Amino acid sequence: MTTDTGPFTNRPTQEPYRVGFLLIENFTLIALATAVEPLRMANQLAGTELYSWKLLTATGDYARASDGITMVPDASIQEEHSFDLVIVVAGIDVTRSFSRKEVNWLKLMARRHVLMGAVCTGPYVLASAGLLDGHACSAHWECLEAMQEGFPRVQTNNRLFTVERERMTCTGGTVPMHMMLSFLARRHGQELSNAIAHMFVCDRVREEREQQPMPMHPGLACAQPKLAEAAQLMEANIEEPIELQELAALAGISRRQLERLFLKHMGCTPSRYYLRVRLNRARRLIKQTSCSIVEIASMCGFVSATHFSRCYRKLMGRAPKYERMEFCPPAEANDTLPDTMASLPSSSRQALKRARTEPTYGTFESSDSG
Predict the structure, then answer these.
(1) Per residue in 139-197, pLDDT tens?
(2) How far apart are CA 289 and CA 104, in angstroms?
(3) Is residue 323 within 8 Å of residue 338, measured between CB atoms?
(4) What's the pLDDT at 222?
(5) What ranges does the record give for the region Disordered, renumbered to this chain (predicted)?
(6) Rounded to whole angstroms, how far apart are CA atoms 79 and 58?
(7) 325 CB contacts (<8 Å, ≥6 apart)?
């Protein structure tokens, strides 16, 4: 149990602790659910209303989640509210899914000394409001580069979640539940937090200091620690790539061993894997920032924009400039999905259309495909 005495550790009063969840268009439903449910269960187990919450949108209109499901909010941010904590819930295409209305309202809440939180890609919205300047911040790995490039005053990290001073931020998926369990332990003690975890059949509560797994090498750390270490070194050295000889030495193996590990477990050479890591970062920067192609080429360790474009086209199947054009597709382009998708339910088809702006869209390759 933590002994921190920050703002998130205040003992509860007789009044319910008031939480507002600001839903950003295309928010992820799992992030919202895993943030709200621990509060519900805290009330249930305590047999009293420890927490109250409201779902909010900018105008009071429904919010559409990334899976196409629509949520009816309790209120709009244009109404008068009193909250102790506001949590921003975002998801796909976050850079284009909110407006000045949400930003200005968040600034107003901060001026009223409301504590601020964000889940999944929600930290991007808080950062856009300047509310994470000088703060440590966790966010989903998919938007970390966009935050690092767009908000240099934000101290981004790769931890699962970060709770410090008047801010609490976390990655996506089920991690909001672990952040909220930590939050509840701070306010009520570890015993209640453990009881809530037990109700959700959660056999291990993850800790704040744990790192979120990087996308290119899930599960490798346990089975092949040297391979995972080499992959992590590649992820950490993109702007100035490391020579393979030096990379192997840093991982504590020979270059030949390094090549054997990658060929056996990744199905490609270390050089090919490293190139893919750099180009995947480039793809995220193209989709999520306004940086020029020349700037992105430099950020990803390419000697020229021409060399970068050639490598990108070869691996990704299209030139970077066309990737950037698809990032801002015209409205009529929404009807260009293959005919085989015509039979999909409306909500799932619309969700798939919106997902086309995501850096990970269409990137999965089965390990059996060679």
Answers:
(1) 988 888 889 888 999 999 989 999 998 999 999 899 999 999 999 999 999 999 999 99
(2) 22
(3) no
(4) 61
(5) 333-370
(6) 10
(7) none
Tabulate helix, strand, coil % of the chain (nearest 5): 50, 15, 40
CB 76 within 8 A of CB 57: yes
Cross-strand partners of 17: 51
- Residue 349 CA to residue 168 CA, distance in Å, equals 34
* 78-111 pLDDT per residue, tens: 999 999 999 999 999 898 899 999 999 999 999 9
Residue 345 CB-half CA count within 13 A? 5
**Common-topology check for domains 7-199 and 218-281+291-321:** no
pTM of the model: 0.71
The DSSP string of 87-121 is EEE-BTTGGGS--HHHHHHHHHHHHTT-EEEEETT
Instruction: Report how far residue 332's alpha carbon sits from residue 351's, in angstroms, rounded to the nearest whole number.
Output: 16
> 70: part of which helix (H) or strand (E)?
strand 70-71
The domain ranges of the chain are: 7-199, 218-281+291-321, 329-370
Beta bridge mates, 19: 53, 85
Supply 149's token pair: 């490039």
Cα 291–Cα 25–Cα 177 angle in degrees, nearest 5? 100
Listed residue (69, 121, 120) closest to 95, CA to CA = 121
- What CA–CA distance (Å, rounded) separates 369 from 204? 35
**pLDDT for res 90:** 96
CATH number of 7-199: 3.40.50.880
DSSP 27: B
SS3 252: coil
Name the architecture of domain 218-281+291-321.
Orthogonal Bundle (1.10)
Is residue 170 a contact partner of residue 180, using CB atoms and an 8 Å limit? no
